[in-house]
Write a structure and sequence with these properties.
The complex is a heterodimer of chains A (563) and B (263). Chain A has 563 residues and is mainly α. Chain A has one domain: Cytochrome C Oxidase, Chain A (Up-down Bundle). Chain A has 16 helices and two strands. In chain A, a hairpin with a 4-residue loop joins strand 1 and strand 2. Chain A is 64% helix and 1% strand. Chain B is mainly alpha-helical and 263 residues long. Chain B has one domain: Cytochrome c oxidase, subunit III, four-helix bundle (Four Helix Bundle (Hemerythrin (Met), subunit A)). In chain B, 64% of the residues lie in helices and 0% in strands. The radius of gyration of chain B is 24 Å and the shape is elongated. The chains are: A mainly alpha (563), B mainly alpha (263). The interface between A and B is large, with 45 and 43 residues.
Chain lengths: 563, 263
């Protein structure tokens, strides 16, 4: 296959197939809570991130269920209007800043990225740990805000309301500022690691596509997040010192805030979706038992999305009073995003064509991603078009579109990746049967919840409203029932994943037949990641990996399957 | 640099050799500097937007800034960049005493900068030249206007210079026609001067925070240098701290003309 491979004597390519739970692995490398809290091991930091962001996800999910319950009926159901305003703000802020932005890169990416590179760690392990503690600090500030008078501005913190409301904006905004630094440091670490620590033989175009996704994400994290940082600082300065830059009464311009905010927060949605797309690329190849179709196109489209993402922020502001010319340019650029997105979707579909598709739990999430991201992406075009946006702006159509992309896209990708790498992280297999049931339930529950929102949005139901006209009641009831199904689905996932940690079957080194390097080490990996140097070659030569009954996992064939 | 020393105490276990480690550190620092530029970028952008929309505010208000003190501070920072670059060279050559002295000189120049900045801030504070709602300055004419050589320092009378976008909070036309005299005065003292000071204090304040952060970093480097930790084999921290210090200087090089030297 490669020069590397040719130099290996026959039979020397031996990959540890064993499960390492009984032996030396990163989980038992140091003992006690202190060894975790002070660890520099990217795998442990990834696990700490995972636990933390899942806690945030739970919190944000509870907020969501409370919101949906309130919306069961017009008028008051379970909470007062002010509480409702705080609740949707906290749902948005917690889900976005604490869960979905760090979700895939900091939790899954941290664990997998050095393994995929055959490296021992990320370039700056201490910075990695620091970024975790920054996340914790930011989360604490968010909690302080929740306790001392939760924000009610919406997660967008639009001025002048955010500079005048009496709720504790400052601690939430400062929390988001700190979380931004956490995100920047993760991105910085990943860029340097990918540039400087690829093993000999792994050129840019022989990198797994997950790494391309993380690389594109990291570029956005580095270039967009500082602008959010200064914007949030200016809100704080406005509230504390009355600087007036966004205050029209003092000659300032509140629309400038919107420009600043969306200059970050639009690219930020690609911080959320790009790594999920990277996960999907891995899942599609592995579970179709077939080489990924259009490798270079998928890799290039990640970078294209990252670049275009900086040029479309104005499409959030079509009705803000920006000039018609700006509106038209932003609308045109927004349509351009559809091109690289569609390139990915078509290539994934082509990967499945004539493959032997294995409907394991991760693949079910990958297929969900394909359907839901397809719907979410196409409805984005309705909103990117100037005329239709005037009708749909600030309705539930936007809410549904956003959730189809972020939940149907990113969260499905996250769940797929979580299930895919779970055996590698924990050394145990989860219940495949319950995995599939939960995946199905989440898919159905998701569509029931959010498709109803597309319909009511197109009929004019505004977002963020506490009260609504009785004609919207059926849609709200359907949506709320769907959200309970979703909640049940996640509860099942939580139960069987925790159960697997105790009672799960020991996982083989390669339970799925993936060809990237993380499958060439034991499950869970040792402290230094590889007890033997992994063989660097084609990351998508999955057909070379064959099921070995005696091993209970996949074994790498000496000769390429095509030979 | 690419030479691997077998027992290099500074080589982390996950790097193959010291050269890779040095390059990784350097790349990481450059990326961090990029994020710093973007952090300031938001303020530069706000500056550009308000100056384009309301040039008269900037032309009027900048005259309250002291060009001499600003100029001295610019010189101070440029010299501190020289001592910093020299310190890096001294570390590379293993000139231990020179390294310590040059780092100390750089930190001292940082103090000089902050001292002068304090004098400027205090003056603004006393005059009520403060941002936003704290702006209380009442003077009809800036100090420079008193100079006979420049009797009318606000050239906004030229129609082409003023904005097409009306200043905020202007009453609807025709309700009450303002007298010619008050119009004259409006030309001299434009509305919303506090916006300039909002931008001035935000930019220079954020910059001052960066100067302080740079000085703390350099103190830490100085401490390590005094212990003799750096030499031709290992000088990465000195190099990276130097890069950061140069960036802080560079931002001031842009702030000075943009805020003090407006025509």
């Amino acid at each position: 296959m490669t020069a590397q491979h040719a130099t290996q004597p026959a039979g020397a390519v031996s990959v540890p197939m064993e499960n390492a739970l009984g032996g030396e692995n990163y989980l038992n490398h140091g003992r006690g809570l202190w060894s975790w809290l002070t660890t520099l091991d990217h795998k442990r930091i990834g696990i700490m991130y995972l636990v933390s962001i899942l806690a945030a996800f739970l919190l944000g999910g509870v907020f969501a269920l409370l919101l949906r319950t309130e919306l069961l009926t017009p008028q008051q159901t379970i909470m007062k209007p002010d509480t409702y305003n705080q609740m949707f703000t906290l749902h948005g802020a917690v889900m976005i800043f604490l869960f979905i932005i760090p979700g895939i890169p900091a939790a899954l990416g941290n664990f997998v990225l050095p393994l995929m590179l055959g490296a021992k760690d990320v370039a700056f392990p201490r910075l990695n740990l620091a970024s975790y503690y920054l996340w914790v600090t930011g989360a604490l500030f968010a909690l302080v805000s929740i306790i001392t008078g939760a924000v009610d501005t919406g997660w967008t913190f639009y001025t002048p309301y955010s500079t005048t409301t009496s709720t504790s904006v400052i601690s939430m905004v400062f929390g988001a500022f700190i979380l931004g630094f956490s995100s920047i440091f993760t991105g910085l670490n990943f860029v340097v690691t990918i540039h400087k620590m690829r093993p000999p033989g792994m050129t840019w175009f022989r990198m797994p596509l997950f790494l391309w996704g993380l690389y594109g994400t990291a570029i956005i994290q580095i270039l967009a997040t500082p602008v959010l940082g200064i914007t949030l600082l200016l809100i704080i300065a406005e509230r504390l010192l009355g600087v007036g830059i966004f205050d029209p009464a003092l000659g300032g311009d509140p629309v400038l805030f919107q420009h600043f905010f969306w200059f970050y927060s639009h690219p930020a949605v690609y911080i959320m979706i790009l790594p999920a797309m990277g996960v999907i690329s891995e899942l599609m190849a592995t579970f179709s038992r077939k080489r990924i179709f259009g490798y270079a196109a998928i890799a290039g489209s990640s970078i294209a999305i990252a670049v275009i993402s900086f040029l479309v922020w104005g499409h959030h502001m079509f009705v803000s009073g920006q000039s018609n010319l700006a509106g038209m340019i932003f609308s045109f650029l927004t349509f351009l995003v559809a091109i690289p997105s569609a390139i990915k979707v078509f290539n994934w579909t082509a990967t499945m064509y004539k493959g032997s598709v294995w409907l394991a739990t991760p693949m079910l999430y990958a297929l969900s991603f394909l359907f839901l991201f397809g719907i979410g992406g196409l409805t984005g075009l309705f909103l990117g078009a100037l005329a239709t946006d005037v009708h749909l702006h600030d309705t539930y159509f936007v809410v549904a579109h956003f959730h189809y992309v972020m939940f149907g896209g990113t969260v499905m990708g996250f769940l797929g990746g979580l299930h895919y790498w779970w055996p590698k992280m924990s050394g145990r297999m989860y219940s495949e049967r319950w995995g599939r049931i939960a995946a199905l339930l989440i898919f159905v529950g998701f569509n029931v919840t959010f498709f109803a929102q597309f319909v009511m949005g197109s009929q004019g139901m505004p977002r963020r409203y506490y009260n609504y006209l009785p004609e919207f009641t059926p849609y709200h009831v359907i949506s709320t029932v769907g959200s309970y199904l979703l909640g049940l689905g996640f509860l099942i996932v939580l139960v069987y994943l925790i159960h697997s940690l105790v009672k799960g079957q020991p996982a083989p080194a390669n339970p799925w037949g993936g060809a990237t390097l993380e499958w060439q080490t034991s499950s869970p990996p040792p402290h230094d990641n590889f007890s033997r140097e992994p063989v660097v070659d084609d990351p998508y030569d999955v057909e070379r990996w064959r099921w070995d009954e005696a091993l209970g996992g996949y074994r790498r064939q000496e000769q390429p399957a095509s030979a | 640099m690419s030479q691997t020393t077998p027992h290099d105490p500074h080589l982390a276990h996950h790097f193959p050799d010291a050269g890779t480690q040095f390059e990784a550190g350097k790349l990481g620092m450059w990326i961090f500097l990029a994020t710093e530029i973007l952090l300031f970028g938001g303020l530069f952008c706000a500056y550009a937007v308000y100056r384009a929309n309301h040039p008269e505010i900037f032309i009027y208000a900048h005259q309250f800034l002291d060009k001499v003190l600003g100029g001295i501070n610019t010189a101070v920072l440029i010299v501190s960049s020289l001592t910093m670059a020299w310190a890096v060279r001294a570390a590379q050559l293993g000139h231990q005493r020179a390294l310590v002295r040059l780092l100390a000189a750089t930190i001292a120049l940082g103090f000089v900068f902050l001292g002068i900045k304090y004098v400027e801030y205090e003056h603004k504070w006393k005059e009520g030249l403060l941002p936003g709602k704290r702006f209380t300055h009442q003077a009809a004419a800036p100090p420079a206007a008193a100079a006979p050589a420049d009797p009318d320092p606000a050239p906004v009378a030229a129609a082409g210079d003023s904005s097409v976008i009306a200043p905020a909070a202007r009453g609807p036309a025709g309700l009450a026609s303002p007298s010619t005299a008050s119009q004259e005065k409006a030309h001299k003292v434009p509305r919303n001067v506090q916006i300039f000071f909002g931008i001035y204090f935000s930019m220079t304040g954020l910059h001052a925070i960066h100067v302080i952060a740079g000085m703390i970093t350099l103190l830490w480097i100085l401490r390590r240098a005094a212990r003799g930790e750096f030499g031709p084999r290992y000088f990465t921290p000195v190099d990276l701290a130097g890069l950061y210090w140069h960036l802080v200087d560079l931002i001031w090089i842009y702030l000075f003309p943009l805020l003090y030297l407006i025509h």
